[in-house]
Every structure is written in structure tokens, then in C-alpha cells.
Design a protein that fits this description.
Blueprint: H1 2-23, E1 28-33, H2 43-50, E2 64-68, H3 73-82, H4 87-99, E3 107-109, H5 112-121, E4 125-130, E5 138-144
Parallel strand pairs: 2-3, 2-4
Antiparallel strand pairs: 1-4, 1-5
């Protein structure tokens, strides 16, 4: 019986820790290069770009989406907020897109700094990072709260 209580207490502690980390989620920003003239994007426009449904910025310039690495908290938070898709639904979406020849998933970068650097170097790229990682090389076009 003592073991059972310890297991229940451990489970409760894990649930509380997960709830605390969910509340501490980062404020994400969708970014473009500081050299890109695009003023802002709507969540729907961003979702279309990252789901392979739009290959151009609203002004007509080509767009290349850049994801955070698979399994990162930023990636999961971004897709939950912008598309409403879980990792499993996202995997199913891209499996269908690739199988039907309608698109390829975005390239991946390993962390916020890599996304920021790659986007800064290429005005055609769009990515998302923790707001705390912003610098003058990139500009936010959408803030996610």
C-alpha cells in the first residue's frame, strides 16, 4: 500500500510540473528577415505557408518556411496555436501532401538561434522563435500569445 501511495504522489507531482511548464510557455514570434518589406501576416496566412498551402508572401514573393526541430516545445506550441494541429495530425497532413505530390514539409533548424540566423540571411524565409531571441537582423510579422 505504501508503494501505491508513492506512485500516486509521483504521478501528482508530474502532473503539477507539466501544468507549470505549460503556463511558462514561451511567447513566440513569426519572423522574416529585416530586409523583407512585408509588414505583417495574419495567423491564417502563416498557417497556409507552414502547411504548404501557400508558396508566396501576400505581395507575390516566394516564401520558404523554416521549422524548429521535431519534438521541440516551440514547434509544438507554434502548430497548436497557429494551425490547431497536434504533432500526430501534422504528421498525417504532411504524409498526405507528400504522397499526393502537393508539397514537402518545411526545412528544419536545430534551435531559435539557427532559425533566426537562417531567416536573417534569406529574405524569402519565414520562421518562428522565442520572442526573447529577437534581434535587429529579423522582424516579427506575427506575435503568438
Amino acid at each position: 500500500m505504501g508503494i501505491r501511495i508513492r506512485h500516486l504522489m509521483a504521478a501528482a507531482a508530474l502532473i503539477l510540473a507539466q501544468a507549470a511548464s505549460a503556463d511558462a510557455s514561451a511567447e513566440l514570434v513569426v519572423i522574416v528577415s529585416a530586409r523583407n518589406p512585408l509588414p505583417a501576416l495574419s495567423p491564417e496566412q502563416v498557417a497556409a505557408i507552414f502547411l504548404g498551402q501557400a508558396g508566396r508572401f501576400p505581395g507575390g514573393a516566394e516564401v520558404v518556411a523554416l521549422d524548429q526541430r521535431l519534438g521541440s516545445s516551440e514547434r509544438e506550441q507554434f502548430y497548436a496555436q497557429v494551425t490547431g494541429k497536434t504533432p500526430a495530425l501534422l504528421k498525417a497532413h504532411w504524409s498526405k501532401m507528400v504522397f499526393t505530390g502537393r508539397g514537402q514539409p518545411p526545412r528544419e533548424a536545430i534551435d531559435n538561434a539557427s532559425v533566426r540566423r537562417m531567416v536573417a540571411d534569406n529574405p524569402s524565409m519565414i520562421g518562428y522563435i522565442d520572442r526573447a531571441e529577437l534581434d535587429a537582423s529579423v522582424r516579427p510579422v506575427l506575435v503568438l500569445r
